[in-house]
Design a protein that fits this description.
Strand content: 15-25%
Shape: elongated
Number of helices: 17
Low-confidence stretches: 1-18
Number of strands: 10
Strand order of the largest sheet: 2-3-8-5-7-6
Radius of gyration: 34 Å
Structural class: alpha+beta
Mean pLDDT: 79
Length: 434
């Protein structure tokens, strides 16, 4: 009799002395997670919670990676043909642009200095009604250093470019105007010759010597590269340039280079950088990323609320079990930890599965796009409508960690209230009608 009476006491002592997240607590939590026929509803809710968290985390990672990819690609394309710093004259025109370009190129951190003449024109060809174009006058040796252009010549070549034997146009402009290498493109500039009757537009035709494709539709459809000497004549800027664009080693260090550029210029100049020229565009991208993060976080939040529903139902169903555990010596803290682990396990498993799914999709984003395009018979992410020709994805380690922390935090918070209710359960009330 004494031996049989000492067994519950020993077991109670063992339960009472159990350490936080002990093997006993993990065992009970695991048993509550396993599906049973009479707990089918609870298991379904737990399954939906797991799937919701997984899809929410995966969607967040994928969307953030794609938006990062957009930003990276756009920065690379924009800075690939536009200078990081633009130097313009204030007191007098840049007639000594050759000398200034050499001085700027000698500054540590500056990799290239491009004297440019720019002007807006109306371009027309064999087909189409014509289109607006930005003509950029540039030296052949400088254009060769713009690898975004010189290494992406789709048709033709740059032979004879500096001699004024032709111009380079983008692939989309060539398609819109029905032009190919060897054809003539007609340019109309409003800044023409001054006559007694006023200013007459200047109209001139140029041979298309090459067609480039940068991969950014805005540039492929609007930019024409013309030899610098020819552009100076065409825009009535003989012997001078409008600006000198500087390319630097680290685009984020342009502010520290401005005093050195002003000192090298030896005159009054106006300097702008790529950040100020594109501030509105990149600010809009940043706002969009933040808003998308908050909206998609709601998916994880809804899944976390499902955890609350499932655990509350589990606590209600396991009321007698909780009462028996407490009568055997289990503390309220031990019961709280059991149900906390039960809910947290769903959140942790869903988060890890979501990270795995998100990484797999990001690594194969272009193949997935092509597959769905083939299945649907339509072109998803049409290059004719978007800036880029491919769907980019650039995962950020910091953002991925932030998504994981956010998901785990919501999951852990969702388990606190049901676990607290289980810990406060009165054994007498729970067993009264058993």
């Amino acid at each position: 009799m004494s031996s049989s009476g000492s067994a519950p006491a020993a077991e109670a002592a063992l339960l009472a002395s159990a350490k936080p997240f002990s093997a006993f607590e993990r065992m009970v939590a695991w048993r509550y997670l396993r599906a049973r026929r009479k707990e089918a509803v609870i298991s379904v809710i737990a399954g939906f919670s797991f799937i919701g968290i997984m899809l929410g985390v995966a969607t967040l990672i994928i969307v953030m990676a794609v938006m990062n990819g957009f930003r990276t690609e756009l920065i690379n394309r924009i800075l690939g043909i536009n200078g990081h710093m633009i130097v313009q004259p204030i007191d007098r025109p840049f007639t000594d642009y050759d000398e200034l370009a050499k001085k700027f190129s000698a500054i540590p951190g500056v990799t290239l200095a491009l004297p440019l003449v720019e002007g807006q024109t109306l371009a027309s060809g064999k087909a189409g009604a014509g289109t607006g174009a930005l003509v950029r006058g540039i030296r052949a040796e400088d254009l060769m250093k713009l690898t975004e252009v010189s290494k992406h010549i789709k048709a033709g070549n740059m032979d004879g470019f500096d001699a004024g034997e032709g111009v380079l146009i983008g692939s989309r402009m060539a398609n819109d105007l029905g032009l190919k290498v060897g054809d003539s493109i007609t340019l109309v500039s409003p800044e023409g010759d001054v006559t007694p009757m006023g200013v007459n537009p200047r109209v001139k035709s140029y041979k298309v010597s090459g067609i480039f494709e940068i991969g950014m539709s805005e540039y492929d459809s609007s930019i024409i590269f013309m030899p610098l000497k020819e552009a100076q004549l065409y825009f009535n800027a003989d012997g001078l340039v409008q600006s000198i664009e500087l390319f630097v080693t680290n685009p984020d260090d342009v502010d520290s280079l401005k005093p050195k550029v002003e000192e090298a210029a030896g005159r009054q100049v106006f300097i702008t950088d790529w950040q100020s020229r594109n501030q509105t565009f990149f600010s809009a991208l940043q706002v969009e990323r933040n808003v998308m993060f908050m909206i998609l976080t709601l998916i994880v939040l809804v899944a976390a609320l499902n955890i609350i529903s499932g655990l509350i139902m589990l606590v209600k169903d396991k009321g007698s079990d909780i009462a028996i555990l407490k009568t055997m010596g289990a503390t309220s803290g031990s019961v709280l930890r059991i149900f906390f682990m039960t809910g947290a396990a769903i959140g942790i498993a869903g988060t890890l599965a979501g990270v795995f799914l998100g990484v797999i999709v990001c690594l194969n984003i272009e193949s997935i796009r092509e597959f769905f395009s083939w299945v649907s018979g339509t072109v998803l992410f049409d290059p004719q409508l978007y800036f880029l020709s491919k769907l980019p994805a650039d995962m950020s380690f910091g953002e991925t960690v932030s998504v994981v922390i956010m998901s785990l935090t919501l999951s852990f918070l969702a388990t606190i209230f049901p676990a607290w209710r289980a810990a406060r359960l009165d054994p007498v009330q729970a067993l009264r009608y058993e």
